[in-house]
Write a structure and sequence with these properties.
The protein is mainly alpha-helical. It has two domains: 144 residues, no CATH class; 123 residues. 75% of the residues lie in helices and 4% in strands. It is built from ten helices and two strands. A two-stranded antiparallel sheet has the order 1-2. The protein is globular and about 65 Å long. It starts with a helix and ends in a 6-residue tail after the last helix.
């Protein structure tokens, strides 16, 4: 078994392949978004906001490269959520309000979807990456040897991969609420002053969701089962607020474009919690007869 130092110096070839693939995916995300914006029949405020948010995901792929190169265990759930939400974020901008999407946009989306699918496959199916993505974040350690900054295992119980996936997916709730709220803010500029209280409430709910998720996941990673129930309730509340506001302020088009990615993140959060609970029940020793 290789030490952490050896892992850092001699990375598997799969790491180099994945980092190249992630850089390509980041560039493809920007290219496809610019292509969709160029061919869009309506280049308004809402499309500009959604395009800018989707392009920011290219920074997420660059951040993921750092996690992969350092062998961080959080790279898997981070990559899964990033790939899934990128496909939804780009796909929702591909289809126009009327007519069919342009052929260059469709081809670009197909290439990006294939790249994201390959990223997920490598993260979860490559044995070399499975042995590489095992390290934890370094922390400041004070012991008899003095003060040092080094990698140490977390003090809390080791969380399963599905719990980490649920955690990362839940952290997307806030931005996925704030982006359509910002788009709806453009309706205020068009004279819909009656929408001001709803838009302000939407912004407040998006910010509150980030704190609620932070509280839930902090205890979720410590093995508190009540935190799972609370996270399910937060997920239901987020959907109950976001989806009706999407439909009311942005119409059916906004419900599909902005509600769809949030539904995907919520489904992945709940599925991760279910899989984690199922794995824990399977690991529990059977009661004696």
């Amino acid at each position: 078994m290789r030490t952490a130092a050896e892992t850092q110096v001699r990375r598997p070839s799969a790491v180099r392949v994945l980092t190249t693939l992630l850089a390509t995916t980041a560039a493809a995300t920007v290219a496809v978004e610019l292509l969709n914006f160029w061919y869009a029949p309506e280049q308004g405020f809402g499309l500009a906001v959604r395009t800018g948010w989707a392009m920011l995901r290219s920074l997420g792929f660059l951040l993921l490269i750092g996690h992969v190169r350092r062998g961080r265990s959080a790279a898997r759930p981070f990559g899964l959520i990033l790939a899934v939400t990128t496909i939804f974020a780009v796909g929702r901008l591909l289809v126009p309000r009327q007519g069919v999407p342009p052929l260059p946009g469709v081809l670009g989306f197909a290439v990006l979807a294939a790249l994201c699918g390959t990223v997920v496959w490598l993260l979860y199916r490559s044995p070399a990456l499975a042995g590489h993505l095992v390290r934890h974040r370094p922390r400041l350690v004070i012991d008899s040897a003095g003060i040092s900054w080094r990698e140490t295992p977390p003090r809390r119980p080791q969380a399963s991969g599905w719990l980490l996936t649920s955690r990362v997916a839940a952290f997307t709730y806030s931005p996925l609420m704030l982006v359509p709220a910002l788009v709806a803010g453009g309706s205020i500029l068009d004279g819909r002053l009656a929408a001001v209280p709803a838009v302000l409430f939407w912004f407040g709910a998006g910010i509150a969701a980030s704190y609620a998720v932070l509280f839930c996941t902090a205890f979720l990673m410590r093995g508190r089962r009540w935190a799972r129930t609370l996270l399910v309730m937060v997920t239901a509340a987020v959907l109950a607020v976001d989806l009706p506001l999407c439909w009311w302020l942005l119409g059916v088009d906004g419900l599909v474009r902005d509600g769809g990615p949030l539904l995907a993140s919520a489904a992945l959060t709940l599925y991760g919690l279910w899989r984690a609970a199922r794995a824990e029940r399977a690991d529990e020793p059977a009661a004696p007869a």
